[in-house]
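wait is this the right file?? whatever heres the structure
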């Protein structure tokens, strides 16, 4: 039978290299684009779509507390609607950005504009133009040799990262990934919301996403049909 995910491959890697890539994935800041939404931050465990609150270590926190961990406070710019000038996020918080929830006030209408809406309309932007990421499925990534199924390392535009790092960075599409839970495969987003998967550290149950991929526990949404 043909199976997409390789089974039980034993790969020798240096622990220091693995630790470095994990730290790189956790430390990498979120790029601000008009497509940034609650889903992307929820995958990082930094936002709860149900309550509309920002999170840190599973606990509700203020926007001012989590922002430095998520965004580059210098290169993330916020538009002052009164002057049409952009200022760094670190200066904007408390002045034109609510330190509690990241929302802004439109001075022309006194209307509250939620954080993600402010991002969508271009009031909160990145000084550095974000590169468009491909959002590949696991099969596409393997076929195009971006994802090495043996080492479970992802190489894209001369950068090498982990499986979970590639998901957070938009190289891989999280909506196209399924993971095993008890009696069946569940969407990756669901696994993150229940705590089964932590994309910041790459942990998955008692193991990690890379080992889960090797063992067939992490697979595409629509895996190939096995042919006997």
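ok assuming it is, sequence goes like this
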């Amino acid at each position: 039978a043909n199976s997409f995910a390789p089974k039980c491959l034993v790969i020798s890697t240096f622990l220091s290299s693995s630790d470095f890539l994990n730290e790189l994935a956790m430390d990498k800041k979120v790029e601000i684009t008009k497509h940034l939404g609650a889903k992307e931050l929820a995958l990082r465990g930094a936002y709860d779509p149900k309550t509309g609150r920002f999170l840190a270590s599973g606990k509700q926190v203020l926007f001012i507390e989590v922002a430095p961990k998520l965004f580059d406070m210098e290169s993330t710019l916020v538009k002052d609607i009164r002057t049409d000038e952009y200022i760094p996020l670190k200066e904007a918080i408390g002045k034109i950005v609510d330190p509690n929830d990241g929302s802004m006030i439109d001075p022309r209408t006194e209307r509250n504009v939620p954080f993600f809406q402010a991002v969508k309309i271009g009031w909160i932007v990145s000084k550095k133009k974000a590169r468009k990421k491909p959002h590949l499925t696991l099969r596409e990534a393997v076929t195009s040799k971006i994802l090495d199924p043996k080492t479970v390392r992802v190489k894209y535009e001369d950068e090498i990262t982990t499986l979970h790092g590639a998901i957070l960075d938009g190289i891989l599409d999280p909506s196209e990934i399924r993971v095993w839970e008890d009696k069946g495969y569940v969407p990756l987003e669901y696994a993150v919301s229940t705590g089964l998967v932590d994309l910041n550290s790459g942990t998955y149950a008692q193991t990690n996403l890379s080992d889960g991929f090797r063992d067939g526990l992490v697979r595409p949404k629509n895996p190939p049909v096995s042919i006997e």
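Residues 1-26 have pLDDT under 50 and may be disordered. so i think its the right one actually
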